[in-house]
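Dear Dr. H.,

I hope your travels went smoothly. While you were away I took the liberty of generating a structure for the chain from your last submission, since the lab meeting agenda had it listed for discussion. I wanted you to have the full record in hand beforehand rather than looking at slides cold. The sequence, exactly as received, is reproduced here:
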Amino acid sequence: MSNNKKPRIRNRDKRFTLRVTQEEKETLLAAMAATGSTSVADLVMNSVNNANVILINEVESYNDVFAKAGGLGKNIIKGLNLIQSQPEKFKTLINYLEKDNGKNLSAMLAFATNLEKAVNTFCVYEDNVKCSADLTLKEFVKSKKKKGA
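The corresponding predicted structure, in token form, is as follows:
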């Protein structure tokens, strides 16, 4: 017995018209080619059925995100230590931060808050998403069906 299964034939007898721009058409055709869909209907149905699936084909390194955040923190600490060791530069920093009614200080605080949120979000993302370089959508759907059966 062969493992080559014939594609499931769908009896599509309902008409549905879709008007798109040339750019949207090119995007749909590119998506069809990338996913191996034989029609726009297949592409749309697969997208709808697998909308809750997140696949990551290429992940450089989670450590890069943390290294960049840590590197930024180290640079801030170096700057603060330099200012602390050279009090004449301390006044320059204060003047810079207080310039324009404290806009620079507010911007730094907002940046620090956003950086913290980004790192925390990334940690949650890293903890909750299983990443696999070889996982394809087809394999994922097969494993999902096996678990459900």
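Two observations you may find useful: The mean pLDDT is 74. The two ends are 22 Å apart (CA to CA).

With kind regards,
E. W.
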